[in-house]
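Example (one chain per record):
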Amino acid sequence: MDSTPVEETQKEKFKPKNVPAGSDSTYEMNLTLNQEGLFHLDSSVAIKNTSGDSWENLVFYFIPNLFTKERSSHLEHPATIQFNEVTINGEASTFELEEDMLTIPLKQELQQGKKINVTFDYQFTLPSEGKRFTKSLENYYLAQFYPMVATYRNHKWNKEEYRFDGESYHTAFSDFKVKYTIPDDYTFVSTKENDKSPSDKEGTFEVKNTKELFIALLKDPSVIEKNEGNVNIRVFGLGKNKSLYKEISKEAASALTYFQTHIGPYPFKQLDIIIDQQGMEYPGIITAPSISANPSAMEGSLKRTVVHEIAHQWFYGVISNDPYHDAWLDEGFAEFATTLYQFSKSKEEIPYKLMYRQIENLEPLPVNLPLDQYNDNSAAYIYGKSNTMLWKLFEERGGKKEAEKFLKSYYKMYNYKEVNTQEFVRFAQYYFKLKDQKTFKDWLKL
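Predicted structure:
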């Protein structure tokens, strides 16, 4: 062993270095859906310039635009978007919408520390073949449906080209206040902490210090509820396989208990799981694919997906990172926490050699490259190699038990902060009393 964990008293001397967002935003929304599937959104966002620069414009992600006929001509049923008005401090404003980037020029520069209020009034429909932002049968999934303020750093807006093979949008922790009105035959499932089922057809809710907002509107779902400690777990299925949904709720409760015990508190009073869409994490809610084709063969895979997405509530939802430039810090850590949980349920020895063999044939690329610097196999590095190298970090440093202690310390140090690779390495060096960075040279670009 070349190092040992620092004592608790020594850890307290370590000062975390948060990656600043550069912008601070508060959102207010009024969302309605009519019987014909047309949404109307009034969205107001108060933005504070917390960077060291003056701004000449504002930049938002507007991902729904990627699914319109103009951007996705291959879709049989594309999205539609009709802007009624955009205002700056109450005055009508021009804007430019290119791909998923919405830019608003400012008549006067916004100085550091100053605030500005932007409103968007538009109508939209969802595509039937979208990704995350989509309609499936009669169900609506509103992911990234509103203009989202980008972060600002290195003297520019931190907005990269959208990619379909990863999360290429990055937002800061923000506060949200939402008013909604939906048709009578829908169930409202969202980041809201106390959604009911059957749900109210109109209401208002607030969530604070949250990465983003997600809403699903479901037609006649099956619902399994399970209380686990201080959290109400709800599994929504759109089929009739209630026995499967009960199994998913049990696995979710087990994983939630493990993560709260060995990482830190779950940030909400409710956890919603929708079994219909691809595996994806949102604050307080996750989605996972259905397994109608061969349920018995795929139940294990579905459970693992659910656990992985739940792990994201800590690694993404509480400890933030830029998923375009440092995707491994949420995907790799979520995968690491998932395998840690699975090993905790068995007496199996951790198969380090097998893990290492699985990455032997990969090119010697680091796991923390920007998404556009990988070919089609980015997942092999961001999910696979990063998970393996995290295990290697603990192979000679206490194994599973020390990994659990490390995650708890890491969470305590960085909850509701943004971390990059350099800060992770700085913390790991301090935690393990490493004299240099050679432990990381084979898998991280520093």
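Caption: The longest strand covers residues 23-33.
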